[in-house]
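User: I'm curious whether this sequence folds into something compact or stays loose and floppy. Could you predict its structure so I can see for myself?
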Amino acid sequence: MLRPSFRPVTLSVLIVASALGADRASAARSLKLTADQVVRSALAHNLELAQRKLAPALSTAAERAARAVYDPALTLSSELQRSPGVVSSQRAGLSPTATTELGGGLGLRKTFSTTGTTVEARLDSGALLDAGRGGLDPAYQSGLSLSVRQPLLQGASKEANEAAETSARQARQAAERELSYQTQGVAADALEAFWQLHAAQSKLAVQRVATQSAASLLSVTDSLIAAGKLAASERSAALYAVQVQRRAEAAAKAAMASARDTLARLIGVVGPRSLETPEIVPVVTPQTAMPPQSLDELQRAALSSRGDYLALVEQVAQRRVELSAAQHALLPRLDLVGGVTMSGISGRSTDPSAPSDRPGYWSSFAPDGVGFSAGIVFELPLGNSAAKSKRELAELAVRRAQATVEAAAQALSLQLKLAWRAAQLAREQLALSADALAASEKKLAAELALFRSGKTSAHQLSVVQAETIAERLSREQALADFNIALVELRATAGSLLDEQDNA
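Assistant: Here's the prediction. I'll summarize afterward.
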């Protein structure tokens, strides 16, 4: 059974009220924080965590880039072509006639990831450039076309077509899970610093009481010397005890300031370049009992919630998607292709009988002038070595990812067991420190009674008093160590933030 850290047994305990009361004015200007507030502040303002949140792996840019392959594509083309006409003229028995043609086209192409179907629509037009007439020929040729390509084997699988996007999404999700684990680590660091500050402030309070007690001992020693109950040489031992406690109090003040500086920067209550630190007062009731969950329950919770482990599991799924895509690439290409075209010649009429204010146009486009095409394309690289090599590498990546998950599970289980044992040891040390403190305070009370009656020396009393102070300091540190061990245990189990939210 744990006992209170202080008992009203000695004169030094009466000084605690005055030592703490002197700080009430400064405490009113202090920043009082609970453990939950410390965690929330760290998650919102910790600079290291803010940097990790900007990791490129957390962006959806890779997914958008993979999906962009299936976005519609608009094409514009323009060309100027000159043909000498030698072959065609000689076949017709005519003199060669060179021609210059100016043409252009507009197209829209879309590939659907669900079936791999590619559809393209185009509008092309061209006209002869007649230098003798001073410009383009009034007649121009235009064509509308619609073509379709449908894979039957390679390229027809929705999973394979979207493998790059799926892999990118799984990589982002793995990075998010890893970030959640890193976030929990930041919360654990903040809570550990919080408990270290709590311990430092408690130990400083103990040390102040120790200094006051040593000063009281010096005063009582002077009184007993004046009454003739002690030799004058006893004053040296009492004075030395005061000096020792003052040095220890100065060290305790420095330790508390360092703990406060560390916590303030972990939770972001000061600027990055600030050298000032506000007073921080932890408001918390220390825990003194082990968590209700068993070690097996904590292990199951860790394997289902720890972000770093789940990130590795996500990577296995990612490698399997890549393997599926690599296996699909082994298939030959067998595509159905087809198209519909309609073309004709149009132009401005040069009939002199046409009204000058209404120029006429003519066209050879007709519904029965529609053409079509259909066919099948088969393609298989000889040996298909590239696809086979990629498949082999993908299989190795899957096996490696699975092995990594197993190794991580083993490491996690070991970490959890060590953290559990450390928490149990800290709990045992806490109970033992309470017993030791109770025994030392009884010893101090007895020694103080002997000293007042002149039956022991100031040196002997200061030694016993120093032992009691050491036990009080040990008790405060043991209390902090146990709560830090609980933080580490919950962080290892992946439940620190969940339990903090429910606290």
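Summary: Residues 265 and 274 are 10 Å apart (CA to CA). Strands lie at 31-33, 73-83, 99-111, 118-130, 135-151, 280-282, 333-348, 361-363, 370-379.
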